[in-house]
Amino acid sequence: MNYKITGDENITFNNNAFYCIGTGRMGLALQKQYYEQLKLVQEKIGFEHIRGHGLFHNDMAIYREFQPGVPEFGPHAWEGRDEKKVQVEYNWTYLDMVMDSYKELHIKPFIELGFMPKQLASGDNTIFYWKGNTTPPNNYDRWANLIKATLQHLMDRYGTEEVVTWPVEVWNEPNLPGFWKDANMEEYFKLYDVSSRAVKEVDKRFKVGGPAVCGGTDKEWIKAFLEFVRKNKCPLDFVSRHHYTTEFPNYDGHYGYPKLHPKTKCFEQLDSTRGIVDSFKEFKGMDINVTEFNTSYIPNAPLHDMNLNAAYIALMLSTFGDNHKSYSYWTFGDIFEEGGVPYTPFHGGFGLVANGLIPKPTFWTFAFYKKLTKSYEKCVLKTPECIVTKCKDGSFRGIAWNIDDKLSGKEITLNLTLPMETKENVLITELVDEEVCNPLKVWHDMGEPANPSQDELELLRTSAQPFVKTERCKNKVSLNLKENAVCYFEIKAAPIKSDRGYTYGRLN
Amino acid sequence: MNYKITGDENITFNNNAFYCIGTGRMGLALQKQYYEQLKLVQEKIGFEHIRGHGLFHNDMAIYREFQPGVPEFGPHAWEGRDEKKVQVEYNWTYLDMVMDSYKELHIKPFIELGFMPKQLASGDNTIFYWKGNTTPPNNYDRWANLIKATLQHLMDRYGTEEVVTWPVEVWNEPNLPGFWKDANMEEYFKLYDVSSRAVKEVDKRFKVGGPAVCGGTDKEWIKAFLEFVRKNKCPLDFVSRHHYTTEFPNYDGHYGYPKLHPKTKCFEQLDSTRGIVDSFKEFKGMDINVTEFNTSYIPNAPLHDMNLNAAYIALMLSTFGDNHKSYSYWTFGDIFEEGGVPYTPFHGGFGLVANGLIPKPTFWTFAFYKKLTKSYEKCVLKTPECIVTKCKDGSFRGIAWNIDDKLSGKEITLNLTLPMETKENVLITELVDEEVCNPLKVWHDMGEPANPSQDELELLRTSAQPFVKTERCKNKVSLNLKENAVCYFEIKAAPIKSDRGYTYGRLN
Amino acid sequence: MNYKITGDENITFNNNAFYCIGTGRMGLALQKQYYEQLKLVQEKIGFEHIRGHGLFHNDMAIYREFQPGVPEFGPHAWEGRDEKKVQVEYNWTYLDMVMDSYKELHIKPFIELGFMPKQLASGDNTIFYWKGNTTPPNNYDRWANLIKATLQHLMDRYGTEEVVTWPVEVWNEPNLPGFWKDANMEEYFKLYDVSSRAVKEVDKRFKVGGPAVCGGTDKEWIKAFLEFVRKNKCPLDFVSRHHYTTEFPNYDGHYGYPKLHPKTKCFEQLDSTRGIVDSFKEFKGMDINVTEFNTSYIPNAPLHDMNLNAAYIALMLSTFGDNHKSYSYWTFGDIFEEGGVPYTPFHGGFGLVANGLIPKPTFWTFAFYKKLTKSYEKCVLKTPECIVTKCKDGSFRGIAWNIDDKLSGKEITLNLTLPMETKENVLITELVDEEVCNPLKVWHDMGEPANPSQDELELLRTSAQPFVKTERCKNKVSLNLKENAVCYFEIKAAPIKSDRGYTYGRLN
Amino acid sequence: MNYKITGDENITFNNNAFYCIGTGRMGLALQKQYYEQLKLVQEKIGFEHIRGHGLFHNDMAIYREFQPGVPEFGPHAWEGRDEKKVQVEYNWTYLDMVMDSYKELHIKPFIELGFMPKQLASGDNTIFYWKGNTTPPNNYDRWANLIKATLQHLMDRYGTEEVVTWPVEVWNEPNLPGFWKDANMEEYFKLYDVSSRAVKEVDKRFKVGGPAVCGGTDKEWIKAFLEFVRKNKCPLDFVSRHHYTTEFPNYDGHYGYPKLHPKTKCFEQLDSTRGIVDSFKEFKGMDINVTEFNTSYIPNAPLHDMNLNAAYIALMLSTFGDNHKSYSYWTFGDIFEEGGVPYTPFHGGFGLVANGLIPKPTFWTFAFYKKLTKSYEKCVLKTPECIVTKCKDGSFRGIAWNIDDKLSGKEITLNLTLPMETKENVLITELVDEEVCNPLKVWHDMGEPANPSQDELELLRTSAQPFVKTERCKNKVSLNLKENAVCYFEIKAAPIKSDRGYTYGRLN
Questions:
Q1: Among residues A11, B297, B441, C402, which one has the fewest Cβ atoms lying within 10 Å of its Cβ?
Q2: Is D467 on the interface with C (CB under 8 A)?
Q3: CATH classification of B20-373 is 2.60.40.1190, yes or no?
Q4: Where are the domains of chain C?
């Protein structure tokens, strides 16, 4: 493919990939390895917000009921319970530890209200290995109080002006029975009503939204949700939903193998939302936050660890911002227990980083898009295989990819002609492909060790770096992309300014 | 080239490359960047001792004379000096800072006694940009006292048992007029006599040696030195000398371009020493410490930064231990001021690490040899292009190189057949060559920036990692080496132990 | 009190306080704050082993059963279970993370085998907020296999020679129904029999022991246990038990207030064990490891945070080693969930360190005893209020305390005369008492904030340092101890060696 | 002394103590220990700018002349020099290292142009142990070019918008012959003229100033300088001078003992400057930057290490901002070589931090003033013994001191009545006095070790922390200050919010 760039182009490109990133449940944020993985992500990429489940899950230990004179434990626990005498107390110990470490890492929460603390739950339905309770509150007043107390505590500790910039979303995927008892729409709307008003009661400046649905019944839910909100005049600052691009997987042992949607249809299931929202005159143009996206929606899809995933996500990021305020990759790391504790460092987890602090290929897709933001002026080329941007200093930066979802081995050659101002330029490329940056293959070749030694981990980390190459160039760039390659490139003026007496390559 | 290894081989290989490493003058060890470079070297390679000049140089501020009632500074300085009333005091402030940081980094000094503090010097001759004084002491008693006080102080601070394991060498390259006034042999012998006795007076267990000569007049000097020692019954625990493998360089501006000795003659100038030492029955078999070696002996030879250097050193390290107790690469890093402060990160410095914390190709040569020590059982193959060792666990490790000192582009293919116990093995290679690990080229392509930005430094560091590759194999290994490649390889049993349900490469 | 020390004394003092330290359940060792607290403890004190519950608890996720073709989750979970077809797999992911961080912190496990993984449990009895299952295995073969697989995995990863030095203890406090179903003695003996043989099957060099009982029925249990072991010829390398020195507490809200045993009876409940063991000729002199001790046995006794606790423990440590191989303070830190997640940094937790990284007074008791080990020669004085030791260099070190369990305010003055060799000495004291090192009081005065800000935490940490004082002395030392003070002191030769011209205290 | 504060007071207090801090010469900023000391200072205090000598000193290696074809070194160095053919090159290697580390530590330079690089010097006059050349340039064009090249390089590397906020001062103390050859006023004015114009040529936004004089001839110099500037229309953005408050010292060995000015006259020698500047209508109200101040102006005055110094500086800081834009304490740390390398950690150096990373009492004076800036609303009391400020949240903060320059032992009691809103308050005090925070005394009592061990250093650091004390209070505060105490205090609302069931001090 050949492209000639004049520099006069100006193509739509909203690079919002760094607004938010997903995470395993909040209780896991106490872990050391979680912190280290997030630290790596923040150093090399840098996200603004982080969103995950489990703020109110039991392991965070926030909510607690008691009644003076009534035993809380033991064989006579709660004998003599009198609802009118029950009191509630809150425990912020773990919440503060988590939020303190987010602050250290320069990332802010995107608050998801959920799941239900056991003492406040109306039933026993749970989801995941870690048993998040997915039933409505047994007492909506106490639920509202919990929300208000939590936000107020955060404002007390981190400053009101700061905390009101943290978006708040009500629950997660209520259109799935697994996540919300019976996927009961009316009950969710009630939850939304109570929750959104509670949030605004604390401070009107909070941005609150929902319904956080996943694909499938998304159309019905979003339409009904907006109608409910309109009718009941609930607060609403943004619409949220999720987006995954694979079919239902085939399962085997601890793993699942889903079929990827064709790359040309990577946004197909998502496309209706903008229209629905805009069809309400009250909500026309309202922000849509895709609060989760990835290829597969299961935490054990080997696909996530593959170069194919990196290339596919590269395509998505090039146009995702066209219609959506934000899109949050699910997730930053592999400390994650929804399907249980992983047995091996590579296990198809959602993370950009594998356990053992190994960046996966998709990590670099994000790191490469981040580089486009530096000194960004405008986008000058966008194709299904690449994006090229112009910087304020006259240089060009771009990313190219070759999605090969059949693993067929086909290659792509990309030829660019660029309007460089001088003839003394350097082309810098950073390449991620199945040969040069494929830690999954290295791990496989090693015998797929479940518990790599420190030496093996170091080797895996070294093998997981992009391959850097430079060459002197004038105004033409030719990139050869092997299967599932993602390649960052940068062309800039680089006159050779040798020091006195220095001749590169001279021997004697 | 084809080799079949049976496993019954047992070839001489004394891998002593990590006994000692060279350094810029001791005063530079106070610097933060020096510390960081040494830290990197210790983490990835790990040397036991460190040797450099300038222990007694003025910037260490150890030696100071004064006389009560006589001004030390100003227009009347030292008016009324009376030698009998002059007193000496010692200042250990900087010495302790240096030694404390060595201790933190788990490296011990190889003490070189020199150069002459200004107040103790008999003349004004100096060497280097930093003006090390190279004249004999004006008072040999005070010189002996300085040595004794220094060793005693070190023992008080770091423990006697520890400090007596630090070797002591008397002066540096006295056979050059630049390093020792008039290259006066008699005077050096006197210095050696006084110094070696002073050392033993502190503790007999110290190992002391000399004459630390460089090539040229080495034969005459070593012979005469041993005769002197024998005759005068001086203490002597080892003989020391230096070894460089280039001709006198062509100079241009800040740089020098020396011709490298043919690889077949890389030890030619060194070979006579063993014979001379062994010709003295008193000294037969005595340890020879090559207390400096490198290709070029100038700190501004671009050769040091090149892949050619890495390949050439790889050859040297394979046989250097055959005749020598130790051999100390000159130097670990590029914080070094002998020729002045470098203008650019790559400037042909001696260091394994360039300024900006960038490992050079030769860094990896040492790191690769270090890997051979892990679980080492014996050497099974040694050729001018490779070395292969067997580990206690039945695996094999090796290093191969392709010295191309004409930059002709010729390639080498190495085919090995190995006595593997099973058919399920992995071959791991870590490659350093002009394409995959050549930060000098990357820096050149960038325009040879004298002051790279933090982003540019990070790119340089990423480009300076070996290229890791793995493949499944049975018992045959084929390595293709491009010009000036150095390749570490490891073959070991690696049965695939997939987790339940995991199939590598499966899509759906 | 006045004591004159001649230097000829030689008093029994086995300072084994650092052999082992207790910890919250193993799953908590994944946490970042846990790591930081343990790091502080290791840096300032330094223990050899660490012991806690929960190695096999569900959150470690080690043990998992499955049966091919039978669903593990969902409404039809385990339908068609056929015991003969059930297979077991092990997951070492979290175990390795924990053990890797122990290794980083230079501490080794003291392995406690327990509690029961849910799938291997014979019942639903649990203990603690975190619901450790306390029932016997439903299958003793699988239990034995779990032990063997675990030890084997540890040996594979950390080296056989290393791992066999980790002691192994069977279960925890089986003489309490809370910890072991029905406190069934016969069943425990069976568990011990199977477990101890499994351990030795892996490697005979492992040291294995029990019965890890607490006070109360300890006499009966230990006697019966030893008879069982003798009769059945079980492996047994040490006897273990626990020791706490308070009565049953009064409870109020989240807290409990126990009465402390009088200091003169601090070992009363423990004293019978040595006699019982020695009454068996086969076990006479066998090591007794007190694998838990503290004042109170509840994790919410404000006593633990008080200076009184520090003084009381100081007394215990002075004689604990007389009859016991080791004694393990329960616990190092306050990341601990037995009674739920603490609401406030000071909450009467067992830890030496409060959450927020604040050392408690008792932390310093251990730090002070550690200082006695440095250059230790012998003990020259031991009273109920102090201990004094002589160092190899002729200096003296000691600890003095003033246990005031009525908070009566009484003071103690200790006068020592020491056989110093010269008259120019320094006395260094490090004092911990209710005025100078009492972070609990500082926190109380601040209003008992549940969630101190970073500034408040820094203040708390600063307030939690011992008060250092020095004075010039000859051979007499006088120490005044306020209520519940613990004072470390050191007297050593310190001739004033002023630098030339320096006069301390001179103004002009 | 008794004071009643109503809260309606509003007293002038410009707390500018953190605008700038002094440093040893720039070449020392390469040192690791320098970095660590500055890091401690920045973490606990935090200054905005840093100013020191030696930007152009030889050890920074910035300026270099050469002439093609003419040897630069050796016996024939510069033979054939032809001024018209001489070229200049600049070396930014070390400058960048220094500036990069300043950036890491969040401190910006206050640029001092000086001293003279050897090749640009017109004579041999030098100052200090490190021999800074103090002669005018031999070529003013090259001097101007050096300034322009340096500023341009800094802007290229650190950003134009950033670098133009770095003030520029021309030379240092030209009114002393030691610092400027013959203290030649005309020559300095020429230097200022050329330099200030060079600065503005690079960017008009730079703030440039002088004449950086010390006391003595300051009146004559400042007046003549302003006349010169007015007449020649030189750029001038601020007037700068220095201020020290001691007499000429008595010397003995390595030390000097100066008499301190009475505290009531601590600004006496400085007071004329404001009037002189304001007497020029063109310069009326112009910023006066006191670019150096301290008690003694010698780097070996034991006074600097004493509590007296801390108390005296506390007084100065309370009113220094009344007439001066900024005042820069000379210096942050004791890596400093003007009088040679110090022999001992305490040696009367200027630093806030002693070598070994020990904060001196004066360090806390600055740390305490920094605390006043947090949530500062206004000053409500200022006396010769204390300052009290009100915070936006209704709490009060203050500092009190007791200067006892006779070491007479007199004490001061300060009684304050404050308009607290509630009765439940806490008083927090942090005390530095000769008993509780006096590392100099601890070091003396230890025998004044020149080279303390790591254990001794740790003890010294622990002894160098302020003594923290809290007490519950209503609206009255009583502080007792022993000789040379400096006490920070804070009174704020602190209602006791005990957790459920918690009773402080309850035993059982």
A1: A11
A2: yes
A3: no
A4: 2-10+376-493, 20-373
